[in-house]
C-alpha cells in the first residue's frame, strides 16, 4: 500500500449512521480463556526490528517532550517493551497487560497493571488521567473494542491523544474474525471506526499514517500503520 493510500482511508470515510459490524465479527477461532494463551511469557518482538524502529521514531515525533512531571502515558495490551523512545521519561508511564513477568521486565514504564481487557474493558484509572494512550500491535485482539475505546476516551485528558499501531502479523487464532478476514486498508478503516462510534463526537476525526520502514531484509519489512485521534477539549 502506498503511504498516501493509508492516509486517504480516513480522509472521507463516509461512516454509516449506525455501527456497521456484527457481534460475530468479534469472535475468535480460539475463544478459550486468554489468560491461558498468555500465561507463558514471550520476550520477543512481534514485528521485525525495522518496524520496531519505525514505531519508536514515530513516537518520538508525537509524544510530549520528555522529563515533564505532569505528563502521564498509558500503554495498553503491553508487554516487556513498549517501543517508546530510548530514555523517554515522564511523571507517570503505565503498562497494562496480561502477563506479569513480561510487564515486570518493561524498563520503559514506572508501573504496571495486570488486566484482561477482553474480560473487563474498564480501565482501572480515574477520568482525565493520561496525556497519551498507546497500543502496539494488539488492537486486533480486542473483542469489545467500543467499550475499550470509550474507556480510552474517559481516561485521556482533554486534548490527549491515542495511538493504535498495527502490522499484518498476529496470532490468528486470537485475532477477531473481522481482522483475519480483511486487509491492511480495511484494518485502518476498522480502527478508525472504533474512535468514531465509541464516543460519538468525543474524539476529533481519526487519522491514519503509514510508517512502514523502507527496505528491510531482502528489500522487505513488516508494514506498520498508526491510527490515532485526539480527545476533544471541553
Short account of what is shown:
The protein is α/β, with parallel strands linked by helices and 234 residues long.
Textual characterization of the structure:
The protein has helices at residues 3-8, 34-37, 49-62, 100-104, 145-155, 177-180, 184-198, and strands spanning 68-78, 90-97, 111-114, 130-136, 156-166, 207-210, 225-230. It is of the alpha/beta class and 234 residues long. A 7-stranded mixed beta sheet has the order 3-2-1-4-5-7-6. β4 (130-136), α5 and β5 form a beta-alpha-beta unit. α5 (145-155) packs across α7. The protein is globular and about 40 Å long.
How do the helices and strands line up, and which of them pair or pack?
Elements: H1 3-8, H2 34-37, H3 49-62, E1 68-78, E2 90-97, H4 100-104, E3 111-114, E4 130-136, H5 145-155, E5 156-166, H6 177-180, H7 184-198, E6 207-210, E7 225-230
Parallel strand pairs: 1-2, 1-4, 2-3, 4-5
Antiparallel strand pairs: 5-7, 6-7
Helix pairs in contact: 5-7
Please mark out the parts with pLDDT under 50 across 5 or more consecutive residues, or reply none: none
What sort of overall outline do the alpha carbons produce when their principal axes are compared? globular
Spatial extent as radius of gyration: 17 Å
Residues in helix, %: 25-40%
- Provide the succession of SSEs: HHHEEHEEHEHHEE
Tally of individual helices: 7
Q: Beta fraction of the residues?
A: 15-25%
Structural class of the secondary elements?
Answer: alpha/beta
Tell me the distance between the termini.
Answer: 37 Å
Secondary structure tally: strands: 7
Strand order across the largest sheet: 3-2-1-4-5-7-6
Strand count, sense and barrel status of the largest sheet are: 7 strands, mixed
Mean pLDDT: 91
